[in-house]
Design goal:
Blueprint: E1 5-10, H1 14-23, E2 29-35, H2 47-50, E3 54-56, H3 59-62, E4 70-73, H4 80-89, E5 93-96, H5 104-115, E6 122-124, H6 132-142, E7 149-156, H7 163-167, H8 188-198, E8 203-210, E9 219-227, E10 233-239, E11 247-253, E12 256-261, E13 264-270, H9 274-280, E14 290-294, H10 305-319, H11 330-346, E15 350-351, H12 356-368, H13 374-384
Parallel strand pairs: 1-2, 1-4, 2-3, 4-5, 5-6, 7-10
Antiparallel strand pairs: 7-11, 8-9, 8-15, 9-10, 11-12, 12-13, 13-14
Helix pairs in contact: 4-5, 6-8, 8-11
Length: about 400
């Protein structure tokens, strides 16, 4: 294909369909095939797309199509790892939708498989890393503009969902079908950004509410406290049961306070670092002089978030471009969410790194005690909608 990478999408549900339409706008990508176990899923594709792609209900037949160089995996969570490994074993580059797996042990299995295929490009769909505000914030942190970070507070309560949303599929909001609730389905992007910006904490202590606002068996409210190796502390609050919601990230650092909210970054900058003023001030209620700044950044994006990740992967294949979100990094945000849930279920603090086998055992117990069997929910997930939906 020369200057284009031939892509297939595995899972033609809500996100898979959206990805198919998005790929039509990229000049370095050609969508050549789609795969879904439900033949009727292809009816949802726009006619102009369906007419020019190969449609497969058997993934083994997909691998026979030599025009397929890379696959975007957009199936329910439990299928991510097996399909990703299968794709690599058939010599295909991969993009895995979030989360890369349901729990840490499965992510470790995927990462081990990746080591066997260094020749392949392996990416996760962490599209929020591409947003200009997030890129600017990372630059400020990495370049030392904020100084040492002392506290992080992220309130993410704008993930409101109704009961009708959860009732739209038997697999939704079940331990066996999805593997979790707000932490695994809605918040993987924020959890990824937390570790991308601030690193991994050493301890998590969380309160987790199961079905507080909805008739579901998984968590729909989380309030977590985090401690980091350098002394920084954090709070992460999320729910799908609150409206109007908030999405506010506040960073208290030595050089001032930064707030990211509504796509804007505001910075109240200290003229003297906090710790220095604590030691040097001669008056008990003295505070450093401050500057109130609005941090400018170019908010223009050549392509939307998901398209930027796909274009990046294609350029990595064609030109060796550095990946925005290597799939191996997907284990970090996943582990953070696993740790929060583990802490809430055990009702005690959890140290990181967590024991992946212990978490897998906890999840297996939840599945066993679920109102639906693992097999039933998995089959329902596959039959109802092969898509990784938000």
């Amino acid at each position: 294909m020369g200057n284009k990478v031939g892509f297939a999408i595995v899972g033609v549900g809500n996100m898979g369909n959206a990805h198919a339409q998005m790929m039509q706008k990229l000049d370095n990508v050609e969508l050549v095939a789609v795969c879904d176990i439900r033949e009727k899923a292809f009816d949802n594709l726009p006619a102009d797309i369906r007419s020019k792609v190969q449609c497969y209900t058997d993934i083994n037949q997909l691998w026979q199509n030599e025009a397929v160089q890379a696959v975007l995996i957009a199936v329910p969570h439990y299928f991510h790892v097996d399909i990703a490994i299968d794709a690599m074993e058939h010599g295909r580059h991969i993009i895995v939708e979030k989360p890369i797996s349901v729990h840490k042990a499965e992510a470790e299995r995927l990462i081990e498989a990746c080591k066997k295929h260094p020749e392949l490009i392996r990416s996760a769909m962490f599209n929020q890393r591409t947003l200009p505000a997030h890129k600017k914030l990372k630059s400020l942190i990495d370049n030392g503009e904020l100084g040492k970070i002392n506290r992080v507070n992220w309130i993410v309560t704008d993930w409101f969902r109704t009961q009708a949303y959860y009732d739209s599929g038997d697999w939704r909001a079940t331990w066996a079908g999805e593997g979790g609730g707000v932490l695994l389905n809605q918040c993987p992007h924020q959890l990824d950004l937390m570790q991308w910006l601030f690193g991994m904490p050493s301890m998590v202590c969380a309160q987790v509410k199961i079905g507080k606002y909805h008739d579901i068996e998984v968590e729909d409210e989380v309030n977590a406290y985090l401690e980091y190796p350098n002394g920084c502390v954090g709070n992460f609050i999320t729910t799908t049961g609150e409206t109007p919601g908030t999405n506010r990230l506040e960073i208290a650092a030595e050089k001032g306070r930064v707030v990211l909210e509504g796509g804007k970054i505001s910075f109240i900058r200290n003229e003297e670092e906090t710790s220095a003023h604590i030691k040097n001030a001669t008056r008990g209620f003295s505070r450093p002089e401050v500057w109130e700044c609005s941090i400018p950044f170019n908010n223009n994006m050549p392509h939307p978030q998901h398209a930027t990740v796909v274009q990046n992967v294609a350029n990595a294949i064609l030109k060796g471009e550095k990946l925005i979100a290597p799939v191996e990094e997907g284990i970090n945000g996943l582990e953070l969410g696993n740790a929060m849930l583990m802490s809430g279920l055990k009702k005690q603090p959890v140290t990181l790194p967590i024991d992946s086998a212990e978490y897998a055992e906890i999840l297996a117990g939840l599945i066993a005690s679920s109102t639906r069997s693992k097999k039933e929910s998995k089959e329902s997930a596959a039959a109802a909608n092969m898509s990784s939906t938000y």
